[in-house]
Design goal:
Length: 445
């Protein structure tokens, strides 16, 4: 069977930055460590006044096409995943194709375009759609572009305000991929939940504390479902485990629970038992309360063990390096986590070709999906070509008053104009409104 997977990726961050420790925490009267240590975030990315989900997605896609030497004829499908769409009918992929047609010869009239919605997991679902399209033999030798793009804004004063972000990841899905091959093994955990939703409104209604519990519950289901098809997971099977990362502290919680799950009834549990005892089993307790208390104590002790700390530092922490500086990118978040991991491998001189990764996606509402991927021989060249560090370093650092102006500028309910803070260069920009209320874009050299 020919390998199908992610051939290449490109990233585009919003051009502005809000520093959580320096700017956000003092304004809220909070200890900066609530954000840097508790949530695990240093800063969030924001879109400048000329940026939105179309410009960021089109810019990432153009970088992808330029770097891979692609023309519109090479692309048979453009799918956009977003939870920040501004149109209930016309998909964002048509706007992005329109942008790209301004700068390339030819057009995308032959390309199937769509928009996927299931909160943050829609990016992974779009990758799946592209994979299935190629596997079904319907691609006529062409590749698919999947764009995960979001302006993850919360209402001001919402508990989620510290976890905002803005950016896009473009992924090229092809046969014989250079970056990772996707496995056919997948596990799902899906249930009708009301933890985070946007009922025809721009900013989410969120039950933050509950959303954390729903994330963990659905992830556990997905892991069990994955094991039912791929066999039991062993803690050393995967070189990295990229998770959906609304904030790194969320992944810290999920990783500890995953570790407890996969080490149960293994030699690792026995080895750990010498220091912290065996994992509590429900049947050994009279009621749920006692059992849950014992689990909490076990988890606290587990997180202090050298074995757990080494595993976390090697397998999970490298997936969080970009998220710490850019915040939540919703649909793009798990794809950024994959890039972070491989970037760390490159920076530390680790050859991961042929190694497996366990990728854990999540969308509120709610669904988790877990699948395996195998890193391909071309990974180093692909990751070395990314300029995400420069993009992150070049962002304009907003003051609090400027942040409020930017937030208002991107609020669909307010009609506020704002001078840009950065000068666009070699990128698509929002250029005003058309006669039917459509948004218009142009390419700035
Ligand atoms: N030093 C160190 N740590 C500190 C601290 C300090 N001075 N002060 C607080 N902390 C810790 C807290 O103990 C807590 O850590 P633990 O959960 O490990 O105990 C952490 O910092 C956050 O503190 P709070 O829980 O008090 O923070 P909060 O209530 O203000 O906000 C939140 C947390 C509810 C998750 C909020 O950020 C939120 O609503 N976020 C949006 C929803 C979200 O991202 N949910 C995640 C799952 S849903 C999902 O993944 C989909 C998605 O993308 C949205």
């Amino acid at each position: 069977m020919t390998a199908v997977g992610i051939d290449a990726v490109e990233v585009w961050t919003g051009n502005l930055k809000l520093d959580l420790a320096e700017t956000f925490a003092p304004e809220k009267g909070d200890d900066p460590e609530k954000y840097t240590k508790g949530l695990g975030l240093r800063a969030s990315s924001f879109p400048d006044s000329y940026e939105d989900i179309v410009t960021m997605g089109a810019n990432a896609s153009k970088e992808l096409m330029d770097r891979k030497g692609l023309t519109p004829d090479d692309i048979g499908r453009i799918d956009v995943a977003t939870e920040s769409s501004f149109d209930n009918s016309k998909p964002i992929s048509t706007y992005i194709a329109g942008c790209l047609e301004q700068v390339y010869d030819g057009d995308f009239h032959h390309a199937n375009k769509g928009e996927r919605k299931f909160a943050c997991i829609a990016g992974t679902q779009s990758v799946d759609d592209a994979y299935n399209w190629i596997r079904a033999g319907r691609n006529r030798g062409r590749s698919a572009i999947v764009v995960a793009t979001d302006t993850a804004l919360y209402a001001r004063g919402d508990a989620g305000e510290a976890t905002q972000g803005a950016g896009a990841v473009a992924l090229l899905i092809s046969e014989d991929p250079d970056l990772v091959e996707l496995s056919t093994h997948q596990g799902y955990g899906s249930a009708d939940e009301t933890d985070f939703l946007k009922p025809n409104q721009q900013f989410p209604s969120v039950d933050g504390k509950r959303s954390v519990q729903v994330y963990l519950a659905r992830m556990r289901e997905a892991l069990e479902d994955y094991e039912s098809v791929a066999g039991d997971v062993h803690i050393d099977d995967f070189v990295y485990a990229p998770f959906h990362t609304p904030f790194p502290g969320m992944v810290r919680k999920a990783a500890a629970l995953a570790y407890r799950h996969v080490t149960r009834d293994t030699g690792v549990e026995e080895e750990l038992a010498e220091g912290i005892g065996r994992q509590p089993r429900r049947e050994s307790f009279d009621d749920d309360g006692q059992y849950e208390e014992a689990v909490r104590e076990y988890m606290d002790a587990l997180k202090e063990t050298e074995q757990y700390r080494d595993w976390y530092a090697g397998t999970v922490d490298p997936t969080l390096s970009i998220a710490r500086d850019v915040g939540n990118w919703y649909t793009a978040s798990v794809h950024l986590a994959r890039i972070s991991a491989l970037k760390t491998a490159l920076e530390t001189g680790r050859d991961v070709a042929g190694e497996s990764m366990l990728v854990a996606s999540y969308g509120s509402g709610a669904q988790a999906e877990i699948h395996g991927e195998t890193v391909q021989d071309g990974w180093e060249e692909e990751i070395a070509a990314l300029d995400i560090d420069e993009q992150v370093a070049d962002r304009y650092d907003l003051s609090w008053a400027e942040y409020e102006q930017v937030h208002d500028r991107h609020n669909h309910e307010t009609d506020s104009e704002l001078e840009e803070f950065t000068a666009p260069e070699a990128e698509f920009v929002f250029d005003g409104w058309g006669r039917m209320g459509e948004r218009k874009y142009t390419y700035v050299e």
